[in-house]
Amino acid sequence: GGPAAFLVTTPYSLCVCPEGQNVTLTCRISGPLADRHDLLYKTWYFSSNGDQSCSEKKRNGTQKSSLGGQASHHGVEFVPDHHGAFHIVVMNLTLQDSGNYCCYAVEARREHGKPHTLQVAHGFVELQIQQALPSSVADITAAALATGACIVGILCLPLILLLIYKQRQAVSSRRTY
């Protein structure tokens, strides 16, 4: 029959990350390749509209395994192969980075000097960015918690003093007997 198919898988289908952080997205190629000497192109695409195949084909980074080259674009770094996996690092995440990241592996063979596609496989990761709270909101929350703790402490103080007083009375009354 035809060439044995390979698979492209992602370790997780959803990644939720805080704004301002860096994230590494990973895809893994598994299964046999028709010819080890053929070209294997690995590409990442991005879709902001929930398309799981990223058919708009907005490119994030491409790497040809035969060249071992590296391309970067708009805070995105393509990380070369490592044991059948390929990655992109999206740096300094913003809310606009939310969407689907699709990784494609394309196996090709050179025929008459031109690459001829043998098979294509892809996987995707949905990236959700959590908006960071403004520092003023965080400061107000911390101040409210500290104030609340002080109030509770002040309200408990008379009770603690009363318990100490009762305890001392009990000890001194035992001594008189």
From TrEMBL:
InterPro entries: Ig-like_dom (IPR007110), Ig-like_dom_sf (IPR036179), Ig-like_fold (IPR013783), Ig_sub (IPR003599), Ig_V-set (IPR013106), VISTA (IPR042473)
Ranges for domain Ig-like: 3-121
Top-level division of the source organism's lineage: Eukaryota
Signal peptide: none
Keywords for this protein: Membrane, Receptor, Transmembrane, Transmembrane helix
Annotated region (Disordered), positions in chain: 50-72
Name of the protein this chain belongs to: Platelet receptor Gi24
Keyword Translocase tagged: no
Any one Gene Ontology BP term: regulation of immune response
Entry's Gene Ontology cellular component terms: plasma membrane
Membrane spanning residue stretches: 140-165
PANTHER family: V-TYPE IMMUNOGLOBULIN DOMAIN-CONTAINING SUPPRESSOR OF T-CELL ACTIVATION
